[in-house]
Specification:
Length: 265
């Protein structure tokens, strides 16, 4: 069965995309025996840092894979596989990114079929070794995001249940529907994940609005606000490796996903 590719996307910054990519990935791998590939698609490279990447060897970066694909139109699966690293602690594979990805983003704009570059990089011969491929997107509605949504089967949208968090969601949902009628008809409906939920009036009211406006797309799992998230990214150990409340929530998310979409593809 081909891998299920999930873009973790929201053009708003700091909503929990990277935390979700890492911890959902680890929950799928460590607790559900799934083979997981995480792909860092953000020039900030927060996911690569979280995974402990220290830039010490010469494996190709996501930037190089993109530039080579732009130049030749195709890239060999062997070359892509060379860029894959393994993170022992969380039992996930990953492709790292770096700051140069910002210039690759511009480089892509001149390429033919500029939205399908990532889809060509993450072809079946590369991803067939995995059950899930999670794409950690950057906070922007630019070409890298278009590439992620063109390569993906699903989109998870982490939404911080705080003030102004729901503004901007309409633009992303509208982009998603445009993609489904142009570049990727197999992209299924968005899955909205409330993050940084707390017991404040603002958070409760954001949840209510999400449920009224996007009820059908709203996941059942809630990710609460906790300092455990920052501690985890400092140590590079995913939340579900230790007994933490957030870890349990990410494990619940993994199970909800497997139940909802595991058998769809
Ligand atoms: N559930 C949570 N509770 C409290 N803090 C959190 C939670 N999830 C993430 N954080 C913290 O919030 C910050 C932003 O999280 P994260 O990097 O996952 O967001 P992001 O959407 O990937 O950001 P960016 O748009 O910059 O890529 C980080 O410092 C992270 O540790
Ligand atoms: Mg991020």
């Amino acid at each position: 069965m081909p891998a299920i590719k999930i873009a973790i996307a929201n053009q708003k910054g700091g909503v929990g995309k990277t935390t979700t990519t890492m911890n959902l990935g680890a929950a799928l791998a460590l607790h559900n025996d799934k083979r997981v590939l995480l792909v860092d698609l953000d020039p900030q490279a927060n996911l690569s840092d979280y995974l402990g990447f220290d830039g010490s060897d010469d494996k190709p970066t996501m930037t190089q894979l993109i530039i080579n694909t732009c130049q030749k139109g195709v890239i060999s699966p062997e070359e892509v596989k060379l860029s894959i690293r393994h993170n022992e602690v969380n039992n996930v594979d990953y492709i790292h990114s770096d700051i140069n990805l910002a210039s690759a983003d511009l480089y892509m704009l001149r390429a033919l079929s500029k939205e399908t570059i990532l889809k060509r990089i993450l072809g079946d011969s590369v991803t067939d070794n995995y059950d899930y491929v999670l794409l950690d997107c950057l906070p922007s509605l630019g070409n890298l995001l278009l590439n992620a949504l063109t390569a993906a089967d699903k989109m998870i949208v982490p939404v911080q249940t705080q003030k102004f968090s729901i503004d901007g969601l309409t633009a992303l949902i509208s982009l998603h529907s445009q993609i489904t009628v142009t570049l990727n008809s197999s992209l299924s409906k968005p899955l909205i994940l409330p993050t940084m939920v707390d017991n404040t009036k603002v958070s409760r009211s954001a949840l209510e609005t999400l449920s009224e406006k996007y009820g059908e797309s709203l996941l059942e799992t809630r990710i609460h606000k906790s300092v455990e998230a920052a501690k985890s990214s400092e140590t590079g150990v995913s939340l579900c490796r230790n007994k933490t409340k957030l870890g349990e929530e990410y494990r619940a998310l993994a199970i909800e996903l497997i139940e909802k979409i595991g058998g769809e593809k």
